[in-house]
Design a protein that fits this description.
This protein has a 5-stranded parallel beta sheet with strand order 2-1-3-4-5, sandwiched between helices. The protein has 2 domains: 188 residues, SGNH hydrolase (Rossmann fold), CATH 3.40.50; 41 residues, no CATH class. By secondary structure, it is α/β, with parallel strands linked by helices.
Length: 238
Amino acid sequence: MNRIVIAGGSVSLLVVPDGAARGAGSYGEVLPSLLPGHDVVVRHTGQWFDLVSDLRRRYEHGVRNHFPDVLVLNYGMGEAQPNVVPTFAARHFQSWDRSSHPAALWYRTQVAPPVWKRLREVQRRTSHLPTYRLSPERYTTELRKVVTMARDETGCLVLLLDLDPPGERWLHWVPAMAERHRLFQDAQDAFVSELGDPDVRAVRPPLVHLPDGIHRDAEGHRLTAEALAKEVGPWLAR
């Protein structure tokens, strides 16, 4: 049995638009079908609004306990976002965990939406300020910790997916996101190059459509799965 662990934020989980990809799935769900002849199980340990620092804290349960043959990391876009609206607030207002209590329902329908709209406007106007959910330096430090632990303890192949360039809708809400994307992509590329480990590799899928500006559609997930399969297949065949 070959074990593939995928960790990342919502970009690794969501297929958009909702309900449009019945039977298609995320790239982690598509990947086994692209590896004929290999007995593969995929474990997805990512989370909504996940940061690589969160994965590092839960490394034992999120990575080590699965003893992966392949570890796929899909981070960067969450860390690159401005932190004028703190992470805890963004998670709160975008949460799917919503109580059925009448008071909570009133809050979620009457209070939260206008507050979140104002906060997003603040974020839009301040996106040029040099604040991040994790700085580029902290991002690569956390990446290094996860990657080196995984390589030392399991000997797995580590694949780091490129950051998808932000789409038009995302650029509206975070106008400086294109520059932030470049900064974090460069930091991730430099990390892979400086590490100098042939079994820690960047994976560069073709540019894909992001209907909401940040999450892949079904075709984007399929193309991403194909890019991963080109690295995973020969590794497993060894």
